[in-house]
Amino acid sequence: MELREDTRYTYAVARIRALETRSLNLEKIQRIVDAGDASTAWRETAGWHLLPKGELSPENTQTDLEKFLIEEIRCTNNLFSSLSNDPELTNLFFLKYDFHNLKILLKISPESLDGMVNLGLVPIEKLKESVIERNFRELPKLLQESIREILELVKIDTNLLYGRLDMVDIILDKKMFDLIFRTLKRHPAPSCSFLNMLFQTEVDICNLNICRRFKRLRRNRDFLNEALLPGGKLALKFLLEKYENNEYAPLNEFINFQIATFKLQLNNLYESTIYTAFGLEPLVAFLKKREKDAKMIRMIILAKLQGLAPKAIWGEINTINE
Amino acid sequence: MIMAVNPTRMELLRLRKRLMLARRGHKLLRDKQDELLRHFLSLIKRWKDAREGVENGLVQGFGLFLRAFLVIPGYVLYESCIRPGVETVLSCSSRQITSVRLPQFSIEVKGDPIAYGFVNTTFSLDKAILSYLNLFQDLIKLAELEKAVILLAEEIKKTRRRVNALEYVLIPNLEETIKYIFMKLEEFERGNLVRLMKVKEIVRAH
Amino acid sequence: MDWGLILSILGGALAVGLAGIGSAIGVGLAGAAANGVLTEDPDKFGTMLLLVALPGTQGIYGFLTGFLVAIKVGLLTGKIPVISFSQGLSIFFACVPIMLAGWISAIHQGKVCAAGIAVAAKKPEATMKAMIYGVMVETYAVLGLLASIILLTGIKL
């Protein structure tokens, strides 16, 4: 019998369980949605915050909101990495911020740091400097090789395909998942299979969504082949074949079904962490839940600012939960 | 108003010529004004339709964009739209209606509007971007129509002022002056006649 | 050399030692979990106290067994009877139930209690239920202790 227990995480899991009581549930969301305006809705989120809750100023509510939520995510990330005993694995969850910053650096010649988020493994100033000077020795080992490869690819591709800026994003997204799966293989830990499942399912959902969008945008098969992410459970060949041989309606039906299946799997994966008393899994689930909550709060309050009625807001919430 | 002219036969002839000219000018301007109005009315109708189309399109585009804006994190949205994927070239020419030159714009869109990754963005953003791009043509058309309407309206105003000036000022003035000179001349004639009769009477009394 | 005495003492010592190790690990696990909760919610100290202490009992059982062995072989009074090799081996084996049951059950009880503490953090009203699960593990330590006592008393010196 293999006991998949990682008792190094006893403290962490108990602490996370205590923090989980703060997460949003349906009842809290209902209260936020039903609030009269944006500021009361913000007040209703009390208890969710790990940091002392700031007040939204009426003049620039939106920037305030984004700022507060980024700070909350930063706080969650710090907690997450401080509780983790496998930094190689937990760092994988912050890669997306580094790659986001890289995208901006590669897309425009960087002058200011606008639009970059300081949540990644590398502080944005340092990242910018190393990209400009093409010197990556200072960066974390995890990123060095990847960035070099990316720069090669982007240089070639932007020359070949003038104006196809989406290639930058596509290359970076692919490289990120590539890096994640490679790292997971290199660092075996009790929770690796969980993380593998998690990222795989995310990739699959992403790939299916890309297929549907491409069909709607009437893109060709070759471009789809470039855009699909590696590492999912659904073989790319299978997806491409489906894409080519089906019209929109049957493809959509297929994708809807598949996405529903994968989302269910993802949900089950998160729910299974409830039964994991020792291990990294509950921490990951907590991080993901916090991110989702932040997204939900942002959405509801911005919708309030735009004057959407509660019913319309529920409609939007349902579309992202679908 | 009677003009300050000498009531002479020469002047009368000159004024009569001017009156004829004014009447002909008036008629021509009248025709031009009618023509302009006709164009203006059809333009207004087209402008109204275009305006409505653009406004509806904007509302729709904004609604689509709002959905993307709510779902996609702010920093991702910024990154996705940081550089446009399309290049637009605006070329300008003109056409003529009566004496007015109206501008004509046309744009050419090159490249792929969807210049971002597909992992963190959603289809709602694609829809919003595409609807804005479609709207772009209409927007340019609307700008063209709106400018044409403004130019035509100006021209109509100017023409109407001229027509009115002719109709209510110059022509009546001329007519009145002509009448005055005519009467004055007759007056002179009658004075002469009386004087002649008086002279005749005096001569006869002797 | 008096092998009988040596074996008896070995049995008692291992009973105390192994059960103690188990308890230490168990309390350690539960304590770490409790600290995790305390970081976020210091008011929960009282509700978690029992859950943390629960895996500690095996150590006490082990100690009790060790004490009984000491009395049995007369180490406390100093009047040590002659113990044959087979008697010594019997005493050693009599200690085995609490030795093993105490050692392993304490570790697992520690895990159950740590999980129970996580439950207490999330749903304070379920603390007692979580504790019952912890106590269930205790049963086997108690059975081990009972077996050891019965066996010990049964051995005639």
TrEMBL record, chain A:
Keywords assigned by UniProt, alphabetized: Ion transport, Transport
The GO terms this record gives for MF are: proton-transporting ATPase activity, rotational mechanism
- Keyword Disulfide bond assigned: no
What is the residue range of the signal peptide feature? none
Write down the InterPro entries for this protein, in alphabetical order: ATPase_csu/dsu_sf, ATPase_V0-cplx_csu/dsu, V-ATPase_V0D/AC39_subunit, V-type_ATPase_csu/dsu, V-type_ATPase_csu/dsu_dom_3
Q: Which SUPFAM superfamilies match?
A: V-type ATP synthase subunit C
The family assignment reads: Belongs to the V-ATPase V0D/AC39 subunit family.
Q: What is this protein called?
A: V-type ATP synthase subunit C
Instruction: Give the organism, scientific name.
Output: Candidatus Desantisbacteria bacterium CG1_02_38_46
TrEMBL record, chain B:
Which processes are annotated in GO (biological process)?
proton motive force-driven plasma membrane ATP synthesis
Q: What Pfam families does this protein map onto?
A: ATP-synt_D
Q: Which residues cross the membrane?
A: none
- Superkingdom of this protein's organism: Bacteria
Where is coiled-coil annotated?
A: none
The protein's GO terms of the molecular function aspect are: ATP binding; proton-transporting ATP synthase activity, rotational mechanism; proton-transporting ATPase activity, rotational mechanism
Q: What's in the keyword line of the UniProt record?
A: ATP synthesis, Hydrogen ion transport, Ion transport, Transport
InterPro entries xref list: V_ATPase_D
Record function comment:
Produces ATP from ADP in the presence of a proton gradient across the membrane.
Which protein family is it in?
Belongs to the V-ATPase D subunit family.
UniProt name for this protein? V-type ATP synthase subunit D
Its organism's taxonomic lineage begins at: Bacteria, Candidatus Desantisiibacteriota
From TrEMBL, chain C:
Q: Where are the bilayer-spanning segments? A: 48-70, 82-104, 131-155
What NCBIfam families does this protein map onto?
PRK06558.1, PRK08344.1
An MF annotation (GO) of this entry: proton-transporting ATPase activity, rotational mechanism
Name the predominant localization: membrane
One GO cellular component this record assigns the protein to is:
proton-transporting V-type ATPase, V0 domain
Q: What InterPro entries would the database entry show?
A: ATPase_proteolipid_c-like_dom (IPR002379), ATPase_proteolipid_csu (IPR000245), F/V-ATP_Csub_sf (IPR035921)
Protein localization: Membrane
Instruction: Provide the V-ATPase proteolipid subunit C-like domain boundaries.
Output: 10-68, 93-151
Origin species, per record, is Candidatus Desantisbacteria bacterium CG1_02_38_46
So what family is this one in? Belongs to the V-ATPase proteolipid subunit family.
Membrane topology term reads: Multi-pass membrane protein
What is the name listed in the Swiss-Prot or TrEMBL entry for this protein?
A: Permease
Record key words, sorted: Ion transport, Membrane, Transmembrane, Transmembrane helix, Transport
